[in-house]
Every structure is written in C-alpha cells, then in structure tokens.
TrEMBL record:
One of its GO terms (cellular component) is membrane. It comes from the Eukaryota. The keyword 4Fe-4S does not apply. InterPro entries: Leu-rich_rpt (IPR001611), LRR_dom_sf (IPR032675). Residues 1-22 form the signal peptide. This is LEUCINE-RICH REPEAT-CONTAINING PROTEIN. The chain crosses the membrane at residues 557-579. Keywords: Glycoprotein, Membrane, Repeat, Signal, Transmembrane, Transmembrane helix. Pfam families: LRR_1 (PF00560), LRR_8 (PF13855).
C-alpha cells in the first residue's frame, strides 16, 4: 500500500473516534479507566457502538448512563461533564463510588435525572447545582454529603423529587427572600426527603404554601426547633408527613386536620405540647405515631375511632389517662396499637368483635386494673400488659403478663432442598435452584419487633417484593428476607437475597433494575415496611468466579465483532474518500479539504454513520412508553424513565 493510503487510514481512524463515535468516547474511556468493576461489555472505544451495558445513546452521543448497584469503585471525575447530551445519570448503590461531586457536573445542562443514592460521596453539594434547569429528580440520599443545602436548588423549577435523606448536611432549610432562592420555590416538587441529616433552626413558615404540591414532606431525625408551621395545613396534596426525632415545640396546628389525603403522619420524639391533635379529618390516615411528646394530660380522644383507615396507632408516652375507649377496637383495619408508658386505667375492654384485625396491643406500664381475656382474643394476637396493676396478681399462665420473645429464623438452606448442594459459592434458592443471588440490606423502623410473628413478617415482605419484580418483568426466581436485627444507629435491618430465574446469575442491567426497584419498593409500601430504605448491596461482582469468564468471552466476542465492523467501516470510508477525492478533482475550484469525508453525516449519498449504530430516539420511546407516567413506580415521580429504560432490547451492531 502506498504511504498516502496508510496516512489516510490513520487519519480516518482518528476521525472515526472523534466524529463518528461522537465526543463521548474520550470521556467514557476516562471514566472507564478510573472506575473498577465496569461492565465487561464495556469494550472498544465507542460507548455507543458496542452494546455497552447501562449506556444508551442518541445520535452517537451518550444520553443515559444507568449503573445501579453494580459495585463500581472510584471517583466521579470531572470528565463526565463533557457528556453534554446526558439526560439520565443513575449510579446509585455503588458504595465504592467516593470523593466529592465534581462542581463541573453543573455543565451537564441537559440532565433530567441525577440519581446517586447510596454511594460513598462526601463533601458539599455543588453550590450552583440549581443551574441544571431541566432537572426533574435530584436524588443524593444515603451518602455522606456535608455542608448546607445550596439555595440555588430553588431554581430547579421542574424538580419533582428532592432526596437528600441520610447525609451529614447541616444549617437551616433555605427559603427564598428577595435575591436568594429557596426550597419554597419548588412548587412542582412532590418529594422533599430531607430526613436524617443535621439540619437546625426552625421549619420556616415560608417553606409551605397552597401553591405547592408535595406528597411527601420528610424532615425527620434532624435537629429542628420551633413549632410546626401552620402553613403546612395549606398543602392539600400531602400524603406523608414525618417530623419525628427533632426538638419541635408548641402545639400541633389545628388546620392539619384539613389535610384529607394524609395516610402517614409521624410526629414522635419531639417536645410538642398542647392538646392531642384532632386528626379526624384525615379520612385515609393509616399510620399515626405521636409518641414521646408532652401533650396535655387527657383521655384518648374517642374521635380517633372515626379514623376508619387506621392500621397503626402509636401514642407511647403522650400523657394519656382514663379509659381506653372501647370503640377504638372497632376500627376494622387496626392492626397495631401501641399505648405504652401512659396512665391509662380501669378495664381494658376489647370486645371480641370478629372484624378486628388487631395483632398487637402493647399497653406496658399503664394503670390497667382489669383485663377479661377471651380465647378468641388470645388466638388473634398479642396483648402486653406488663407493668400494669392487672399483672401484679395475675396467674402465671396469663401470657399477657410477659413480653413475648421473637424467634429469629435466620435462613439456612430451605429444608425441602436439603439433599441438594451447590457447587462453588452458589446459593440454594427457596425453589431449590443454585445461583448467585443479588444481596443487600433493607433498613427500616418497625414499631414493635418483639411482638411480630416472624413468619408472617418475612412472607409479607417477600411476597410484596416478588409482586413488584413480577410487575416489572424482572427475571427473579425468588426472594429471601431475613428476620430483622438491630443495626447501627438503632435501625432494624434485614438481609435481602434476590435469586435469578432462567440463568444462574443476573446481568448488570438487571442488577441495576433490581437495585433501583428495591429502594422504590420500600417507598411504595411504607405501611408494610414501616418506612424503610435500601442500602449496601453486596458488590455483585464479588464471589462468582465462573461468571466473569463467561461474560468476558461474550465481551470479547462483541469486541471482535465490533472490531471487525470498524475495519469494514474503514474500508468503506476509504472507498468513499477515494470517491470524494475523485469528485473533488473533477471540481478543482472547491476548497481543498482533507477531512471532507467528515461531511458524510450530512450527505444523502453515503451510509449514515451517525446514529445508525445506536437506538433511534423513537425506538427508545417505544420501549419506555414515552417515559410516561405509567412507568413511574410508587407514588409520583420515582425512578422516572431510568428504570423502564432497562427493558430496552440490546443494541445491535449493524450498518443498516
Ligand atoms: C436525539 O437527537 C435528536 C436530534 O439531534 C433530537 O431531536 C432528540 O431530541 C434527541 N433525543 C434525546 C432523547 O436527546
Ligand atoms: C437562580 O435564579 C435567580 C433568579 O430567579 C437568579 O438570579 C440566580 O442567579 C439563579 N441562581 C443560579 C445558581 O442559577
Ligand atoms: C442541636 O441544636 C442544639 C442547639 O440548637 C445544639 O446545642 C445541639 O448540639 C445540636 N445537636 C446536634 C446533634 O447537632
Ligand atoms: C387526594 O388524593 C386523590 C386520590 O389520590 C387525588 O385525586 C386528589 O387530587 C388528592 N387531593 C389533593 C388536594 O391533592
Ligand atoms: C382549615 O381549617 C381551618 C380551621 O382549623 C378552617 O378555618 C379553614 O377553613 C380550613 N381550610 C380549608 C381549606 O379547608
Ligand atoms: C375534630 O374535627 C372534626 C372535623 O374534621 C370535627 O367534626 C370534630 O368536631 C372535631 N372534634 C373535636 C373534639 O374537636
Ligand atoms: C420513645 O422514647 C423511648 C425512650 O427514649 C424510646 O425507647 C422509644 O423507642 C420511643 N418511642 C418511639 C415510638 O419512638
Ligand atoms: C390508677 O388507677 C386507680 C383507679 O383505677 C387510681 O386510683 C390511681 O390513682 C391510678 N394511679 C395512677 C398512678 O394514676
Ligand atoms: C417461637 O418458637 C417456639 C418453639 O419453636 C414457639 O412455641 C413459639 O410460638 C414461637 N414464638 C413466636 C413469637 O413465633
Ligand atoms: C446479614 O448477613 C451478614 C452476613 O451473612 C450477617 O453478618 C448479618 O448479621 C446479617 N444481618 C441481618 C440483619 O440478618
Ligand atoms: C439482561 O437480562 C435481561 C433479562 O434476562 C435481558 O432481557 C437482557 O437482554 C439482558 N441484557 C444484556 C445486555 O444481556
């Protein structure tokens, strides 16, 4: 071959990298080099051409990167900011992703979803994050971010989800004033998850207004003071309110009773005073916890029996006295009633009404003098009266005078499969199949562990999770949830193992989907789970020696195909180049341009390089149902698009 042709081939191949493959190959290869445990399908130089798992492109530009819970390690380098077409970025549950967020992330102007939940990020949230004008979801929960909430977040006028839960953030909650922005400007946002940080100061009156439409306002477990602003009562859309674990004082504003859509309200562990609030306007209220406050000593309001949707009522240590109104036991849905550490007295009169679902009645340390136990009641659930006068003279057989102990049933291999053994470090599923499960930890607050029947608890969770996986058509064979134990910080934790069906391992895409779904699931079903979150998936790449082999063989196969394809492409380009050169010679007046073949993309007469090897956006919208509401999981806004994207068929290397 003559040198001219060789030179051409060299130039051509460089140009293919930067033009045909888009600008993103450099940035992606930097990220790939900086991260450990990238998918084995990340081979070759073109992130859009080689079926890179977790990457979706539009016109040869990366517009979605979704790698949740795949065990990525390393830092998020500033190079990511050159992926200027990026709209979805989800790197959640990679606990090995550390360091601070590069401030240049605010250059990703097209970003709509930024999900970095459950990673190891530290340092401040970039001050000008508010310049990501298109952001709909900012989810930075369960990291170790420090500093204050950047007021510029108030500029995110399209924001639906703000999740800063479980970080080390401090300072006050910013509201707008004249020149500065604040969270009160987020009138579209449905989720304010600011719990478990170190926020201080008062909850500003200005934070809430009737213009807002939040469904979750979670400010729990901070260091907030002052009273609950009465403006909260203007936010008619509210469904969950969690202010527990602060130092809030003063009375509960009476207009909260206007919030008819609230299903969960937790105000426990504060210093609230005044009368026990009248909440009978909350017709759908099913979880109410007012424990550990300093309300005026009073009877348990009999109006509580009008809360027909109530499943859990917790009023431990709230100054209650007098009789427990018998009508309370007629609430058909009530399952858990915790009234410990009050001064409730007299007879505990639980009519053996057949409709009652009450499983747990915990009345420890009250002044109950008489309890006529019936056999029906004993079969239905647990009553605990330890620390009441009634137990001072009770017969030793009275089981309501002991605190039942939970039976831990840490799951070994299921009994029915006992003769089976799995090779290497595979694990036996409940359906007796050997595979590599995806494992993680569910963290949650349960009202009363000691009185929960472990079997029904685990099955509730397992069934609920399985339903969710089925609904999202994930290839899951079975789920095992262990009985919860107390973890760090006093939160209860369960181990979760998700077993694959079909194959003995999940691929990265599915892992990513399961990771997202586990977290969404816990939010979707706060009543069953007692409000929980998902953390610490075990890096899935760990402990599966046979799998990487297989995957990397597939990987190199794809690489080979892609490589061969590139060579064909080169030949094709060479042909086109020669053709264009010939044409040019025929049009001598035309300006000399050695890179004329770059115009390929604009020419009708030659193969289209740009976009041809990626999904068209049409295809993507087809398989994600236009990022429609229908694909949202749980209540409003969660996991928008990013989850459903996983179900796109694999990209095909072709020149069609
Ligand atoms: C894909 O690219 C086309 C053309 O540049 C553009 O019109 C479209 O909005 C892009 N789609 C996405 C999802 O970025
Ligand atoms: C936020 O918006 C205000 C105007 O509403 C503007 O003055 C300010 O510069 C913006 N801040 C950022 C960080 O974009
Ligand atoms: C909470 O705030 C009070 C005063 O506002 C302060 O004394 C206390 O140290 C703070 N607690 C924590 C855990 O930050
Ligand atoms: C209350 O919930 C219902 C049903 O979910 C919904 O249609 C209605 O818009 C909600 N009310 C408000 C004020 O958001
Ligand atoms: C809310 O409750 C207050 C009384 O607490 C009442 O005066 C007001 O009219 C109610 N507002 C709405 C919108 O129902
Ligand atoms: C509680 O509020 C309801 C309206 O939601 C009202 O009808 C009822 O009278 C109130 N009860 C008390 C004791 O104030
Ligand atoms: C109430 O406070 C006690 C003592 O601090 C604590 O053990 C208990 O868990 C608290 N109850 C609730 C429901 O948070
Ligand atoms: C307990 O109840 C009895 C009446 O049943 C009452 O005499 C006594 O004062 C109460 N004790 C306390 C500590 O409230
Ligand atoms: C714990 O196990 C024992 C025997 O194995 C059983 O009798 C008891 O009912 C169990 N308790 C609970 C709460 O499941
Ligand atoms: C989860 O599994 C790990 C490792 O097997 C174990 O150390 C831990 O105690 C388990 N945690 C729970 C809550 O069961
Ligand atoms: C991953 O697994 C799912 C479900 O089995 C499958 O639909 C998908 O095509 C796989 N993705 C890749 C890149 O192999």
């Amino acid at each position: 071959m003559c040198p001219k042709v060789l030179t051409f081939l060299l130039v051509a191949s460089i140009q293919i990298y930067t033009e045909a493959y888009g600008d993103d190959s450099t940035a992606m290869s930097t990220l790939k080099n900086e991260w450990e445990n990238t998918p084995s399908t990340w081979v070759g130089a073109d992130p859009c051409g080689g079926n890179w798992e977790g990457i979706l492109c539009n016109n040869s530009r990366v517009f979605s990167m979704t790698l949740a819970g795949v065990g990525l390690r390393g830092q998020l380098s500033g190079d990511i900011s050159s992926l200027s077409e990026l709209e979805f970025l989800d790197l959640s549950y990679n606990t090995g992703l550390e360091g601070s967020l590069p401030p240049s992330i605010v250059n990703l102007k097209k970003l709509r979803i930024l999900k970095l939940v459950g990673c190891g990020f530290t340092g401040p949230i970039p001050e000008s994050i508010g310049s990501l004008e298109l952001l709909e979801s900012l989810e930075l929960g369960s990291n170790r971010f420090t500093g204050t909430i950047p007021p510029s977040i108030g500029n995110l006028s399209k924001l639906l989800v703000l999740d800063l839960f479980n970080n080390l953030l401090e300072g006050s909650i910013p509201v707008s004033s004249g020149t500065t922005s604040g969270l009160d400007m987020l009138v579209k946002a449905q989720h304010f998850h600011l719990g478990r940080n170190r926020f201080s100061g008062t909850i500003p009156d200005e934070l809430f207004s009737s213009d807002m439409t939040p469904i979750h306002v979670l400010l729990h477990d901070n260091n907030l003071t002052g009273s609950i602003p009465s403006t909260l009562g203007l936010v008619q859309s509210l469904e969950a309110v969690r202010f527990e674990g602060n130092s809030l004082t003063g009375p509960v504003p009476s207009n909260l009773n206007n919030l008819t859509n609230v299903t969960m309200m937790i105000l426990s562990n504060n210093k609230l005073t005044g009368p026990v609030p009248n909440l009978t306007g909350m017709a759908y209220l099913n979880y109410l916890d007012l424990s550990n406050n300093s309300f005026d000593a009073s009877d348990l309001p009999s109006s509580f029996s009008n809360l027909k949707a109530l499943t859990t009522l917790m009023m431990e240590n709230t100054g209650l006295e007098g009789l427990v109104p018998p009508a309370l036991f007629d609430i058909p849905s009530l399952q858990t009633l915790i009234l410990r550490n009050n001064k409730l007295s007299g007879k505990l009169d639980i009519a053996s009404s057949s409709s009652s679902k009450l499983k747990v009645i915990d009345m420890q340390n009250n002044n109950i003098s008489f309890y006529p136990e019936t056999p029906e009641r004993r079969n239905k659930g647990i009553v605990i009266l330890v620390g009441n006068p009634v137990c001072e003279h009770a017969e030793p057989t009275a089981n309501y005078c002991t605190v039942p102990q939970a039976n831990s049933s840490d799951t070994g291999p299921p009994e029915k499969c006992v003769p089976l053994h799995c090779i290497s470090d595979q694990i036996l599923s409940p359906n007796c199949k050997c595979s590599y499960p995806f494992r993680g930890v569910l963290v949650f607050k349960r009202p009363c562990l000691e009185s929960i029947d472990s079997n029904s608890y685990e099955h509730l969770e397992e069934e609920s999770l399985m339903r969710s996986f089925k609904r999202h058509e994930l290839p899951v064979d079975s789920v095992v949830v262990s009985f919860p134990k107390e973890g760090l910080l006093g939160y209860l934790e369960s181990n979760v193992s998700v077993f694959p069906s079909g194959q003995n391992h999940f691929n990265t895409t599915t892992i990513s989907a399961i990771g997202s779904l586990l977290n969404l699931q816990t939010i979707e079903n706060p009543n069953i789970f007692g409000s929980s979150y998902f953390k610490d998936p075990y890096p899935y790449s760990a402990g599966k020696p046979t799998v990487p082999d297989k995957l990397s063989r597939t990987g190199s196969l794809i690489g080979a195909v892609a490589g061969g394809a590139s060579f064909l492409l080169l030949l094709l380009l060479a042909g086109v180049y020669a053709y264009r050169q010939k044409k040019r010679r025929e049009r001598p007046s035309e300006q000399e341009n050695h890179f004329a073949y770059l115009d390929l993309k604009n020419s009708d007469s030659v193969p289209r390089l740009k976009g041809a090897r990626c999904f068209s956006f049409d295809e993507i919208t087809k398989c994600t149902n236009n990022f429609s509401e229908a694909n949202h999981i749980g209540t409003g806004g969660y996991g928008m698009a990013s989850l459903s994207l996983f179900y796109c068929p694999a990209m095909v290397v072709s020149f069609a």
